[in-house]
Amino acid sequence: MSASPLYEQDVVELFIDEQGDGSNYIELEVSPHNVVFDALIHNNGDGSELKADVTWQLEGDASIADCIQTAKQAGFEGIELSLNGEGELSLSATDQEVRDIQGRLEEAGLEIAGLATGLYWDYPMTSARPEIRTKALDVCKKQLELASAFGVDTILVIPGAVGVDFIPDSEVTDYEVAYERAQEAIAHLLPYAERAGVSIGIENVWNKFLVSPLELRTFIDSFNSNYIGSYLDVGNVVQNGYPEQWVRILGHRIKKVHFKDYRRQAGGLHGFVDLLAGDVNYPAVMEALQAIGYDNYVTAEMIPPYTHHSKQIIFNTSKAMDAILGRSQE
């Protein structure tokens, strides 16, 4: 599957009126409390393909089958699943359950775009408790196993934390110790990734760890493996840096990209806003991505969700991505 420059993407057209000139995907995360949809779209602009997607959150419970039906009704052509502690796609998921999900997707004519998880916040690879570190490894191994079964090329991984301000009473770990434990964990996991044919994408998050692009680059390069790279989150950089610099410095190491926006003046979690409402310099980000030849997914990860009319965020985001990716606003 080839890819075109990011500016060839037309998001709004496929969200609102399916044209049949590309593929569009929708990501879902099934948990006991919410469903997160992530719409991925890739078009033919010059005979090749580009991939882009958007995330929004719906209140209430929903089964994977329900979400597949919603995706189909909305005109999407695929989904990205999230591994959870319990539910239909959990750590205890069996081969039969995977086949069942694949069967539902095939019946609906949908594909799978990727696999993420939020379980690393509960089980950091850097914890002082050996049983927690072991659990983190088990989570990643299961994630790799499922990703391979679903045909996903990269999983999203959080390699631990020094501290997490937005999680009350979270463990604080000495930075050097955290670094050593994270290196040990990833080194242990890379043979599993290689056998699965799935890359480990390290996401930059608010974990007080790997806080600069230079440090993340050094961390990735220390393993000398093509099966580890960056899952770059543009919005997470803005509080303390400039995402276009991260793109340039990380270069070919970037496996996937998250788009979201952040307003520095607001600060904290309240700073996250709709795309183009914050301080991300998206023209500079796009120029940097084009310069490094990036041609994989760009995911608009939208937080916080809307309080009312939660689906509306998908349409607002599609218009913003249309502008970011240089498409006409019709």
UniProtKB/TrEMBL annotation:
Xylose isomerase-like TIM barrel domain residues are: 69-304
Tagged with keyword Signal: no
SUPFAM superfamilies in alphabetical order: CBD9-like, Xylose isomerase-like
Question: Which InterPro entries does the record associate with it?
Answer: Sugar_Epim/Isomerase, Xyl_isomerase-like_sf, Xyl_isomerase-like_TIM-brl
- Keyword annotations: Isomerase
Q: Which GO terms describe its molecular function?
A: isomerase activity
**Which Gene3D superfamilies does the UniProt record give?**
Divalent-metal-dependent TIM barrel enzymes
Q: Name the source's superkingdom.
A: Eukaryota
Give yes or no: UniProt keyword Isomerase: yes
Its protein name is Xylose isomerase-like TIM barrel domain-containing protein
Organism the protein comes from:
Phytophthora kernoviae 00238/432
